[in-house]
Amino acid sequence: METATDVRRHWRARLDRAATRLPVSFSRGQDAFTVVSTPLLQDLLRHTVPSPVVIAEDGGWSIFLDGCPIAADGTDLDEAIEDFVVAVTDYANAWIDRLHAAPNHHHAAALAHLVAASTPDQLRDWAGRSSQPTTSA
Question: What is the pTM assigned to this prediction?
Fold first, then answer.
């Protein structure tokens, strides 16, 4: 494994390598790091983070993320998705600021990275793509 100094010396070449989805790993002391392109990171994280659950109920829509304190509601699906994007972004920001240190939020690291690496439009697509809504009785 290369050292951080080696990678720094050849930074442009390492970024070009990562852009083609090839691995770029290096160490700094006892710590190991990997550089990946944002699209690859998003693909990997979307397979790790549970998909949002979309429910049509009582003339409205709800979206939640199982295992996380994130929920959104709307009178139509678009409104619920917008509310969800705000809620998941707020949670990710809180995770980055302070919740990462709380043991009961450690599991949300992948979610925080997914949100940080995504645009609001990409988050809307992610929330909407999971919608084969279940209806509540």
Answer: 0.84
